[in-house]
Design a protein that fits this description.
Blueprint: H1 14-26, E1 40-46, E2 49-58, H2 60-63, E3 75-78, E4 81-84, E5 90-99
Antiparallel strand pairs: 1-2, 2-5, 3-4
Length: 101
């Protein structure tokens, strides 16, 4: 089972809570679940179907509802190893292909 929930809102309301509860309930079935808040989208026609592409940038700025700063993630070298800087931008892309008859 695959469920894609798209939400362009900036707050947790009824639909968002329903999706969260659905993901919690389906956890026993070990599904691949990903929640995407604000996003950009495009639909591209293909041979026999369409491709829906979602892109999302999560950052400290999105956490503060576009009031705070944002910055890229960069490598941080320490005596204990290499890590990425905290709270930096994370870019995500999801592509969903649907067959159309």
């Amino acid at each position: 089972m695959r469920i894609l929930h798209l939400d362009s809102g900036h707050e947790m309301r009824g639909g968002q809570w329903q999706v969260l509860r659905l993901m919690e309930g389906l956890r026993r079935a070990n599904p691949a679940a990903q929640f995407v808040g604000s996003f950009r989208w495009s639909v591209t026609p293909g041979v026999g179907g369409i491709t829906l592409s979602l892109t999302n940038t999560t950052s400290f700025r999105s956490l503060t509802y576009d009031k705070g700063p944002q910055w890229p993630r960069v490598p941080v070298f320490t005596p204990y190893g290499t890590f990425t800087s905290p709270m930096g931008n994370t870019h995500q892309t999801y592509n969903v292909t649907a067959t159309c008859h």
